[in-house]
Amino acid sequence: MPFLSLSLYNFRNLKNGKIDFLAKEIYFVGENGQGKSNILEALYYSSYGSSFRTHTDSQIVTYGNSGFRVSSLYSNESKNVQQIAVVYEDGKKSIEKNGKRIRDRKELVNTIPCVLFCHDDMRFATGEPECRRFFLDQSLTMYDGLYIDDLRAYRKILKTRNVVLKESKLEMLDVYDVQLAQKGVEIQKKRKNAIFQFNQIFGKLYEEISGIAGVSIVYIPSWKEIKQEVGTRFPNVEDIVGLLKSKREQDAVMMTTMSGPHRDKVIFVKDGRQFVPNASTGQCRLIALLLRVSQAVYYTRITGIKPVLLMDDVMLELDPNKRQRLTAMLPEYEQLFCTFLPGEPYDRYKRDGTRVYHIENGEWNEKI
After folding, report:
1. CA–CA separation, 329 vs 334, rounded Å?
2. DSSP class of 58
């Protein structure tokens, strides 16, 4: 199992101390606001060097203090014990792996891969297009360091190109158009392939749990594929440069770049029509859950590594039958962490060796 223990210091409302995780499944049970989600956040922070709940690290610090520390011991694929430590103090963050400073969070890719299930995932089904782009990019950045580089470079070029448009320095666009096209084409190719892979997983899962067949994910790139006499082909850099040049007047008027991967869309379709606008809340919630399940399966198929699952009160809105089906169909995992309210029937999901911690006022006590 990857996580062996987690040590906390001034992290939200959690008491300072160490939690042992020598089990494949760990449950945290407690009322809302007691600290269950904070523990999952600390695990996620230890894995990726950032929070899934805030972009402002200072919000994580226990009130009245200037910084926090999260340190985890984990077992790598060779069964060697390793350590990740993240320290935030006086507005600055540092990350160490086995005592060695990490300069870029990209170096944490594949270290302790975690797939997070949380209530906010509903936005992947019903939110704005950028929410689904975020999910797609997250799925790729979990294992592909080159994709991280391409995405960062694209965003930097896009930002500069937009400044040029705002300042009406259109003579400079030739250079930036080529750079934007080079990075953007690579991003779209990988996104298209990822959606193809996801569709091998998602639709079948959705049908098995909901009974609704034929729901699929469709990727709509902003830079369209080019029609040919036989089928279509993916646009190359020259195609995109020509497209950007043809749209310069529009971009200049709007003072921003109106096409590119930052405008891509991902939708859910059934029988040739968008599914989400007419779907029930329960059906949309299931889409969000199964996207995360698909993300875990996709990651394992690509890397051969089983992830850690972090599940934060995600089954509350499912009826008992769907809960049971979803629990039975969880992807292969290296370790599972779940949060539950006291009234939930978590005993039904326990296995031999499952550890259960009761959380109250930021303190944890194991139920034997």
Report:
1. 15
2. G
Whole-angstrom distance, CA of residue 168 vs CA of residue 170: 5
pTM over 0.70: yes
Nearest to 205 by CA among 324, 289, 318, 305: 289
CA 48 to chain centre: 11
Name the phi and psi angles at 299, rounded to 5.
-60, -45
End-to-end CA distance of the chain: 21
The average confidence (pLDDT) of the chain is 93
Backbone angles phi, psi at 69, to 5 degrees: -140, 135
- The two tokens of residue 4 are 């062996």
**What residues form DSSP beta bridges with 219?**
266
Cβ-in-10-Å burial (0-12, 13-18, 19+) of 69 comes to middle
232, two tokens? 């279509």
Backbone angles phi and psi of 331, in degrees to 5: -70, 165
Average pLDDT over residues 16-40: 95
- Residue 224, number of CB atoms within 10 A of its CB: 13
- Distance from C-alpha of 282 to C-alpha of 120, rounded to nearest angstrom: 14
pLDDT at 229: 67
Contact 91, 58 (CB under 8 A): yes
- What are the residues facing 226 on neighbouring strands? 233
Closest CA to 88 of 39, 53, 55, 40: 55
As a 3-state breakdown, the chain gives helix, strand, coil percent values, each rounded to 5, of 45, 25, 30
Q: Return the closest-CA partner of residue 21 out of 68, 73, 69.
A: 73
Nearest to 323 by CA among 342, 306, 301, 345: 345
DSSP SS3 for 101? strand
d(CA 81, CA 11): 24
| Torsion of Cα atoms, 240 then 246 then 252 then 253, to 10° | -130
Residue 324 pLDDT > 80, yes or no? no
Whether the CB-CB separation of 151 and 141 falls below 8 Å is answered with: yes
Residue at 30: amino acid letter? G
